[in-house]
Amino acid sequence: SFAKSRFVASLLKKAVDHVTCITPSIYESLPSNVKSISSIIPIGVNTERFNPSKNGDKFRDELGIEDEKLIFMIGDVTPWKGSEVFIKAAKKVASKRQDVNFVLFAKGTYEFERERLEKLKNMVKAYNLEEKIYFAGVYNNIEEIYAAADIAVFPYIEAFALMSIPLSLLEVMALGKPIIASKVGDMDYAIRNGVDGRLVNPGSVKELANALIFLLEHEDESRKMGMNAWSRVKKNFDWNTILGKYITLYNNIIIR
What we know:
The structure is a single chain. By secondary structure, the protein is an alpha/beta fold. The chain has two domains: 1-40, no CATH class; 57-236, Glycogen Phosphorylase B (Rossmann fold, 3-Layer(aba) Sandwich), CATH 3.40.50.2000. The chain contains twelve helices and eight strands. The protein has helices at 2-15, 24-28, 32-35, 57-63, 83-96, 111-126, 142-146, 167-174, 187-190, 205-217, 219-236, 239-254; strands spanning 19-21, 38-40, 69-73, 100-105, 133-136, 151-154, 179-182, 197-200. The strands form two sheets. Strands 5-4-3-6-7-8 form a six-stranded parallel sheet, sandwiched between helices. A two-stranded parallel ribbon has the order 1-2. Helix 8 (167-174) links the parallel strand 6 and strand 7. Helix 5 (83-96) crosses helix 10. The radius of gyration is 20 Å and the shape is globular. The two termini are 34 Å apart.
C-alpha cells in the first residue's frame, strides 16, 4: 500500500546515505525528509546495441513484407497493455490505408497467455484482418526485430505494474522509431508529445488510430520524431551517461 511504502521510505533516511529514483513520479512520492537525500537517475539503454543503424530486413523477409508499412505493438498480450485497443485501431487504419501491416508479440508459454492469444486471434479473424495482423514470438536479436518497424505503439490502458517506463520504450526510441504511447505511468518522462512521438489517452481507439494515420500521412514528421527520439535517448538514457551519474554520486558520497 501507499502508506506502507511511505513507512518503508521513511526508514531509508536512517538506513542509507542516498536514494536514487528512476523517474520523477517515484521521487515525488517520497516523504520530504527522504527527498532531501534523493535524486533522479533513470534506467538506461545500450545504444551500441540499439541505434538507428540496425537493419530489420530479415524480419520483414520472414513476414514476406518488403515495402509496406509495419506498425508494432511493443510488449506482450497482458490485458492492461491494450492489445484490444491496438487491434481496434488497426481496423480503422486498415480501412484507410491498404499498405499497412501490424505486429503483436506474445510468448505463449503460459496457459493464461495462450488463452489471451486465442482470444485476440479470434478478434482479428472477426475483423477480417488475418492478412494484416501478425503475431510474433520471442526473439534474442530483438534490436533487429524492432528495427523493421515504421512506428512503435504502447497502447497501455492503465499503469498497472508500470512502475517506471518500459525498457522496451527506450530501446525502440534508440532505434530511431516514432512512438505512440498512452499517457500512463511515466511515459511522458521519456516521450515529449509532438517531439519524439505522440501521447494519447489510454483506451481511446479513436485517438490511437488518428495518431497512427497522422504519422503515416506525414512521413517527414514521422522521421523527424524518430530522430528526435534517438537523440533524446542518446543524451539522457544512454548507459554510459547513467554510469557517469552514478560515479559522480558515489564520489560525492565518499568525500562527505
